[in-house]
Amino acid sequence: MPLILASNSAARQSMLRQAGLDFTLLPSELDEKSLKRELQRQNAPAPQLAAALARAKAGSIAQIRPDALVIGADQVLSCEGDLFDKAADLAAAAVALKSLAGRCHELHAAVCVMQGERLLWQHTGTARLWMRPLSDDSIAGYLDRAGAEVLWSVGCYQIEGLGVQLFERIEGDYFTILGLPLLPLLAFLRTQTESTWESAWQ
Prior knowledge:
By secondary structure, the protein is an alpha/beta fold. It has one domain (3-201): Maf protein, CATH 3.90.950. It is 40% helix and 25% strand. It is built from 8 helices and 7 strands. It has helices at residues 10-18, 32-41, 46-62, 90-100, 136-146, 174-178, 182-192, 196-201; strands at 3-5, 24-25, 69-79, 82-84, 104-115, 118-131, 167-171. Strands 1, 2, 3, 4, 5, 6 and 7 form a 7-stranded mixed beta sheet that branches. It starts with a strand and ends with a helix.
């Protein structure tokens, strides 16, 4: 059965490819911002918000490709009740990092698999991260070195690279931090697909 990733995230694509999965990329064109605002008006908790966005992304593609298993994923960053979005530019990234500096925040990463109108499986993982206190000069220096790539992640850092320097403590699954709880997803897919490759690795 074809496997589709309904996400334009480079990190998620890389994780699936490195895990050896054969999939097609078909990003959802869902109006994510409008849906997120509506869910926030309903006071949806951050993990529930991430799960709803993941389902909506997968559902929008599963409707037009009912022959395939469609993976949807989303990640929400919360810090003491406040939700953070991806920064529009480096100036906004500096503001976000200043707000997160010296505090603990949570990353809630949700993933689901849909076929047609059926939700076959879903999972949400949470990681907690303590960012070091950072001066304005430290933030400016980090952004100067990291560049515009920080705008791709909700926390304006990439933990797999230079961004790890910003933290003093981390609790949680590494893949969840990157935006996709990979191990639970792989476990589910092994129950759905039989192949020589998978049989060799079970």
